[in-house]
């Protein structure tokens, strides 16, 4: 069996503009970061949000945190971050001399389990008046994601660890979990994303295999991966039909929330 490899920054960056838009929408709802506090970009990846966070912060300190060395190398190239840390969000905490004025996480927390304890813990790390701002995909029930798992389970029974897949709580669960900890705001947006044609396969397959499908494909041998991809390609066009040029209009739902603590 193959093991899960590091992220592929090139494949992930193919749709950089579409992945950045939710980060911009989230940042637009974040209040001013307290003076002398640091912004932490948790799950910063290859740094797509770094330049816009830097513009928003001005001279404020910006630190990126991610588990992927390959992604952090690309994030360094943006020049936006004052520091980059290789580490797991589940264990992360700011150092006392750099209190967290903003904990910003765009499309990363869905990869971590135990949100019932993780989110209150992150909220508790905020400086007075600080904000926790989170965006996560809420797409698992859509055909783009559901078909990867159902086909893999059908073709290779028992091979896929369902716990390795990205997942989130229901919106109401986040509401009940966090609303008593500060000023809490929760919303969802479904983006209708135009995906350009791809010579390498259906555009939705290309979009989703770099994120949601990574742990599914990584659990399979190369010939098995090819079998699964072929099966996915055979059916995905029925859910997301291509236009005359081969492009696809791809609805993608994302969930957002912000929590701002009392300034004291």
Description of the structure:
This protein is an alpha/beta fold and 264 residues long. It has a single domain (9-260), classed as Vaccinia Virus protein VP39 (Rossmann fold, 3-Layer(aba) Sandwich). 36% of the residues lie in helices and 23% in strands. The protein is built from ten helices and seven strands. The longest helix has 18 residues, at 222-239. Mean pLDDT is 92; it is low at 7-13.
Keywords:
36% helix; 264 residues; Rossmann fold; 7 strands; 7-stranded mixed β-sheet
Please write the string of helix (H) and strand (E) elements.
Answer: HHEHEHEEHEHHEHHHE
Number of domains: 1
List unreliable stretches of 5+ residues.
7-13
Oligomer: single chain
Corresponding CATH architecture: 3-Layer(aba) Sandwich
Largest sheet: 7 strands, mixed
Let me know the number of strands.
7
What's the total helix number?
10
Rg: 19 Å
Overall pLDDT confidence: 92
Helix percent reads: 25-40%
CATH superfamily: Vaccinia Virus protein VP39
Assess the beta-strand content as a share of residues: 15-25%
Please sum up the structure shown:
This protein has 264 residues and is an alpha/beta fold.
Give the topology:
Elements: H1 9-13, H2 16-27, E1 38-42, H3 50-57, E2 61-66, H4 69-77, E3 83-86, E4 100-106, H5 115-124, E5 126-137, H6 143-155, H7 171-178, E6 183-195, H8 203-209, H9 214-218, H10 222-239, E7 248-260
Parallel strand pairs: 1-2, 1-4, 2-3, 4-5
Antiparallel strand pairs: 5-7, 6-7
Helix pairs in contact: 6-10
